[in-house]
Amino acid sequence: MALVALLVVAGLAACRSAPDREGPPNILLLSLDTFRADRVGALGNPDGLTPNLDRFAEEAVIFTNTYSQATITGPSHASVFTSRYPSEVAGPNRAPSIPREMYTLPEVLGTYGFQTAARVAGGDLNPAMAPKRGFESYESSIDFGSLWHTTPMALQWLDAADPSKPFFLFLHGYDTHPTYLKPTPFGLISTGLSVLTPSQQQTVNATERVLDGNRHVSFDLLDRVTRKVLRPRTAEGKAMLADLVASSPQQLPAVPASDEDLIRRVYDGAVSYVDVQFGLLLARLEARGRLDDTVIVVMGDHGEALGEDGLFHRCCSLDDGLTRVPLLIRLPGAEGGGQRVEAMVELVDIMPTLLELAGATPPAGIRGVSLAPALRGEPFPGRRAALTQGGFSNRMLSARGGSGRLTYTGVQATSEVLADIVAAARLPGPAFVATAGMDAAEQAALRDEMVRWIGTLSVSPLQAAVAVPPELIETLRAKGYWDAR
For 2-7+25-180+260-380, CATH number? Predict the structure, then answer.
């Protein structure tokens, strides 16, 4: 990690400049796609993967128990921008379809005089299907691009922005999204290798198709299982997948355990790569004198499975590896920097937080709560449980409590009978998976929280489909992102 350490920004406080504009602070929201919280040093990782994020954390408020509301990019960002849950804003094939009566974060900030812009890395945030309403300027790089692509675009917009008005800038990159293999030296920096064999390279470049020790030719096999088996991670689901693999005319060799470990190490290299990109972004913001008049929020939109229960990618689980994400908020002048907030929070809390910091009134009906009291160092109880919807089959609902997680798999998240079925299902029973050792009372409390939460959802699931260009559909399908149902 010596090479990475050399690129750490040498102290953000060194060259502060006083704000030259009165009024609300500027806001920069940075989304690190597919970024697990457990890879961040400031959140407990001992491997030195994130020196720039760790240095930033010394001047930020660190929310150590933050959970995403979806494990897919489009619905997760739609939840962030609306402070609503995924089933309220995600239409067919997970392309967000935000009802007109819902206001987005950039829309509200725009009414308060903010300049609003987004620079994103395509994929699920491609302008053709992104939750982009309210942005005055919304531009994308290549699909599944990097911060290396989007940061210069963002800085170019920032340099042209009106200095007399506050700005809200959303910046996004897919640096830790498959494929993880990054340019030299980062691709192999955590592996101890100088080169990959052809077989290793095929596996590393196809992590979204690795499941239960096998690398599949395409997503079709996995999709058949998730369509036919209600709970694909049960013994029944795993047996069905094994039978399908055995009968496949294009069966691939099994993935050895050493190659599964290699995938994790290549992912760690991608973490180091995005950390360097982040350090360069901070240096460029500092050179422009934008640190002391800007709220900087760093978030992950969701995590990634890296071999837990045989899973890679995000098809069949809502466990912590996929839902626990980093959330760091640096206030102007690094006010309150270094605080750690252990209370449980959700990504839907970002919108009301930023609106309070901007002096704006939040719209009615939002699901989040402002984290501003925690930023001020005031007592902050957080949530009893953090809730996540989704999985690729969209039949999963999970509640994360203080001592573990309860996940339900059954009917679609938008079903009108979901609450009744969750309330009536046997507990413990086949519809639920609980963290090992969780007692019956905690399971019942989390199930009650699920039922209560479902009852708050008031938006009809029958939303208009989003027209997505065929070429984008093919790009998404190649990554396993498109369900043709």
Answer: 3.40.720.10
